[in-house]
Design goal:
This protein is an alpha/beta fold and 584 residues long. The chain contains 24 helices and 14 strands.
Length: 584
């Protein structure tokens, strides 16, 4: 099994874990442990649709019927119950209780293959959610019986320790549960994702039972960090070693005062390089977000004396490049910053913890500090903490280099739609298609007139440009639901809608042919190339748009990961997500 995929799963980097496992499965498609790892990554990120498809594929190929180690058999049998559990916890009222019952029954069924504490304790918790307290207590005691029979390393395993805490909590033994949880968390030091799963499960029990979470969790959770730098004193032309040392010391004190699980940011200047170095020195998972290709970025924005340290940080971290365009302007930097903040918040959500923002900044009011001010304000609106470390004497030299680029482009959300089956609509049927199908979709789009910068159609194709990512997401979901409601229109062949959405920096200009103000650039092409690979009935979005939504509207949407997909016409492979509104 891929050690890299396992490591990514432990970090809570579920999307990367799935990517790594999927890549290895191409060579070993029948490896059940590898398949379970991929399923678990999807299930933990609540990507239920994709996980369900993978699980059904395993069943169809008969892989789940073959002999296997009992623990693996129990884990695979419990995946179905886990997926139902995800849906149950998003539901309310009687629907929630019914789904929780199905999940609990599924976990109990998994016990048929092996008397394992994992399905037993999950059944116990889901019976609690379903409102069946007596059955919950029975399954909690059963989990404890299995745990008491363990010995040696098995008894000291993290999941065994965490399960004991959960069982004791379900049985109303709060003090004993708190002590067991503290012991478990000491064993989970290298597995923040496991600790997150436990915290999420125990918080659920606390919410139902009325026990304050603070009475149970006395150790605190790790944080996810997003950082931003604005240069340290004398950065470009007059190096000041004492200033650099002071800032590095302050960064180190900040990191040592917190347990940081992961860091997200860039390497735009010396201050950001200092933060990245400090994170890497502490063996903290680092993800770098660049507005353009790394070589061009370094050439344009990093003082040459910092290049070796820039290269070392870039080589040691994971990277995301948000645009392959050549123009490095303020909208692109804003876009990259928002993607980075959204990704940090997404990781924090997976780890059931909080995210913090660190700005190395002298609070200068100069124009070149505007981007730092904007990022701090953007982050503050999320309600998450901000810490500012003084940077010294400002950003001499480097800022002038960046500020010389005049902003010409705009950040827009781009939505493309296509109707599968349109080619089968006969000429006599066209009036009905225009009235009922295009007319129905037009009514949904009209709701968002206030946020639309441009729209057009071409036969069955619809293209809409939005000023706001939330409006684009709302519209995408509304269009798919409208098409579902239309169903089979009398007199028309079966039709289905594909919707794709992306956000990027585009160039506004007057189209010489039409005379209309339109939008041009690589990101428009990318958005268009995603729509043909979207399954009918779905709204697929890029990682950039998913990150923006996590920042702007974290409680309104779920972006369920579907993997790295090849776009149409060989335009490139991108991480894609299936968009849906949250049930609660």
């Amino acid at each position: 099994m891929s050690k890299d995929a396992e490591a990514a799963l432990k970090r809570g980097d579920y999307f990367h874990a799935y990517d790594l496992a999927s890549s290895e499965l191409k060579s070993h498609p029948d490896d059940l442990r590898l398949n379970h790892l991929a399923l678990l990554a999807l299930a933990r990120s609540c990507a239920n649709r994709q996980a369900r498809a993978c699980l059904e594929d395993l069943k169809a190929r008969g892989l789940l019927d073959q002999p296997m180690e009992p623990r693996l058999a129990a884990d695979l049998a419990a995946i179905d119950a886990k997926l139902i559990k995800n849906v149950a916890l998003e539901a309310e009222g009687e629907e929630r209780r019914a789904l929780a019952t199905r999940s609990a029954e599924g976990y109990e069924a998994a016990l048929a293959g092996a008397d394992d504490y994992y399905p037993a304790i999950n059944a116990a918790t889901m019976w609690l959610v379903a409102g069946n307290l007596s059955r919950s207590a029975v399954m909690a005691r059963r989990a404890l019986v299995v745990l008491d029979a363990l010995g040696g390393e098995d008894a000291a395993d993290y999941w065994a320790l965490a399960t004991r805490a959960e069982a004791l909590l379900l049985l109303g033994q709060g003090e004993a549960a708190a002590a067991a949880l503290a012991t478990a968390m000491e064993a989970a030091a290298t597995d923040p994702a496991a600790a997150a799963a436990t915290r999420r499960q125990l918080r659920l029990i606390c919410d139902i039972s009325g026990m304050p979470w603070s009475e149970l969790d006395r150790g605190g959770a790790p944080i996810v960090l997003h950082y931003r730098g604005h240069g340290i004193g004398g950065a470009a032309t007059a190096p000041d070693p004492s200033c650099e040392a002071d800032v590095a010391t302050a960064i180190g004190r900040f990191l040592d005062s917190r347990h940081v699980a992961a860091g997200f940011g860039s390497l735009a200047d010396d201050a950001e390089i200092l933060v990245a170095e400090a994170l890497l020195a502490r063996d903290i998972d680092l993800h770098l977000i660049f507005p353009c290709d790394v070589a061009s970025f370094r050439q344009a924005f990093v003082a040459e004396r910092w290049w070796p340290r820039f290269d070392a940080c870039a080589a040691a971290a994971r990277q995301t490049v948000v645009s392959r365009g050549a123009d490095l302007d303020d909208p692109l930097f804003r876009h990259a910053a928002m993607v980075g903040m959204g990704m940090a918040l997404m990781r924090a959500d997976f780890l059931a913890t909080t995210a913090e923002h660190l700005a190395v900044w002298d609070r200068s009011p100069e124009e070149d500090a505007a981007a730092t001010v904007r990022d701090v304000d953007e982050w503050s609106r999320t309600g998450n903490p901000v810490t500012i470390i003084p940077s010294g004497r400002g950003r001499a030299g480097v800022a002038a280099k960046a500020g010389a680029i005049a902003p010409r482009r705009e950040l827009k959300a781009l939505l493309f739609c296509d109707i599968k089956g349109f080619s089968t609509v006969a000429e006599p049927q066209m009036p009905a298609f225009i009235e009922h199908v295009l007319g129905g979709l037009a009514k949904e789009i009209a709701v968002f007139d206030h946020a639309i910068a441009y729209r057009e159609t071409a036969g069955d194709g619809i293209y809409v440009v939005f000023d706001d990512v939330v409006a684009a997401a709302d519209c995408g979901v509304a269009l798919t639901r409208r098409m579902e409601r239309l169903g089979s229109v009398p007199g028309l062949p079966p039709l289905a809608l594909r919707v794709s959405a992306h956000v990027g920096v585009v160039l506004p200009a007057i189209d010489p042919v039409t005379g209309f103000r339109k939008f041009f650039g690589t990101e428009v092409i990318r958005a268009a190339r995603i729509e043909p690979i979207t399954p009918p009935g779905e709204c697929y979005v890029t990682e950039e748009l998913a990150s923006h939504l996590q920042l702007a509207a974290p409680d309104r949407f779920n972006c369920d990961y579907v993997g790295v997909l090849d776009s149409a016409k060989g335009f490139g492979a991108f991480r894609m997500y299936s968009l849906r509104r949250r049930m609660i």
